[in-house]
Amino acid sequence: MLVLAISVLLILYLVVQPLVVYLIDPKGLRQFPSPSVAGLTSFWRIFHSLQYKHYQAIHDAHVKLGTHVRIAPNHISISDPAAMNDIYGHGAGLLKDPWYDGGAGEFRHMADARIKTEHQAKRKKLAHVFAQKNIESLEPVILDATATLVSQIDKHIAQSKAINIRRYLNYYTIDLFAELLYGHSLGCLERGDDIVEAQTKDAKVYKAHMIRSLHDATHMNTILGYEAHLLPLTKTIFARHPYMKAGANWDNIIYHNTTRRLQDAEFGEEKKDLFSNLLRNNKGESLDLPMGEILAECSVMMNAGTDTTTAALTNTIFLLYKHPRVLAKLRQELDSAIGSSADVPNYASVSSLPYLRACIEESLRIRPASSYGLPRVVPAGGRVIAGQYIREGVTVSVPTYTLLRNTDCFMDAESFNPDRWIESDKATRDRMNTAHFPFSVGPRACIGRNIAYFEQLLVISSIVRFFDFTFVDGESQELATLERFNSNPGELRLWPSRRTV
Ligand code: HEM
């Protein structure tokens, strides 16, 4: 009897209720075209997220249906550059959607705080952590980590082994960010794996795979977030799912490293890392953050600071070695700027090289690390977004992947062409800049972009100068994209050799 009652309730909830809402159409959304059953149910998005190809399904829908597409019962995706400012700009007034609750813990961090005042306070408190001046002071740490990466590639050459550069770049970003944040590396690069220590609240220390923990947890949170109002139920139903265990492992990795860092501080070890800036403002006064908030901020930094930059670095290496003409031009620029030095180039020597910058921008455009349409809620009174009125309470987003290949803004948008950032006339460049937002815009835009550029400049210039690669699978080698929330690249195996500089 109970099973029958639950089944009836489920059918009512999953089939009848969406159909009734769809037909009554209280928010006037039926005027917007939608692919397949997307206007009726979130299952359309869930299906494509489970294939890791959500961005592609949204892109295909826009190509077929136009700029304003209904991708879920209460969600309009808008692939128009004008929508960036309308939705995300300073003063737009649209707040983050409850989808962000999917990954939120008891304490919110800077990226998942949805209340405006809470977010503003956090961002203000932590802005100094990400200031360019502060990042530049961390250059020795970045140079050291980059030198270790170079020596690991050399080891593969000495042993005549192919290298999975996607994994090694991820080991690099993990070690580097742990060093920047906590003042200690996690040793992934040296070991050639991502198995690190985690610690439960009752002090049990064990080992876990760092990359997998983050990826599985993110995938789960992304999908559960589509029906955010059901989170208390779905989190209970899936409590034993391995991806939930992955989330616990991730939290325990952060807990282990944060408590270790706090103990260092207790023993009076003075460190010049981001963590010390997290505890104190730029006048040296304590910020008095509760432990839950410290853990939350460390978690988002280790997440955002490693996963996106790994994607950006891997994508750039792939694109450069796939395009020998571009690679040769970049090498010419680097060689004439740096000469024959065998050291990892420093920031001053590469930060204003135009072609290097252009390669990085073009890679962020054509293979964005963050391709997901970032959801926001239309506030009271509704809004005109890219020319169409959308009622209050509707979720809207700009699909980053689609925006970055907008054919009105980028000529021959599907081709990797760094020259477009240098050789285009002003009008063309202005048009490109209306759509080139790999870090988003406005008050919720990426706060870590200075770190991201710093890393990319040093790593890309080092690898390109020192190494030749051939693809293990020959010229036909492709690089998969697996969108969980970030767009993670698939494995990328290369045969490395030393280039004579
Ligand atoms: C190529 C690398 C990166 C890309 C493409 C990228 C992209 C983005 C994007 C698109 C957002 C907006 C997310 C949203 O609205 O939900 C964001 C936010 C954020 N990013 Fe990055 N990011 C990168 C690197 C980093 C790094 C190195 C850090 C360092 C910790 C970082 C920390 C953050 C934080 C804390 C936020 C939340 C900001 C807020 O809501 O105020 N990111 N990033």
Describe, in plain words, how this protein is organized in 3D.
With 501 residues, the protein is an alpha+beta fold. The protein is 52% helix and 10% strand. It contains 21 helices and 14 strands. The chain has helices at residues 2-24, 43-50, 54-65, 82-88, 116-126, 132-136, 139-158, 165-182, 188-191, 210-224, 231-237, 242-266, 274-279, 291-322, 324-338, 347-350, 354-366, 400-403, 420-423, 426-433, 449-466, and strands at residues 68-72, 75-78, 95-96, 163-164, 195-199, 205-209, 376-377, 383-385, 388-390, 395-397, 467-471, 481-483, 487-489, 493-498. Strands 1-2-10-7-3 form a five-stranded mixed beta sheet, with helices on both faces. Strands 4-14-11 form a three-stranded antiparallel beta sheet. A two-stranded antiparallel ribbon has the order 5-6. Helix 8 runs antiparallel to helix 14 (291-322). It is globular and about 70 Å long. The structure holds protoporphyrin IX containing FE. Protoporphyrin IX containing FE is lined by residues 110-111, 123, 300-301, 304-305, 308-309, 312, 369-370, 374, 438-440, 444, 446-448, 451-452.
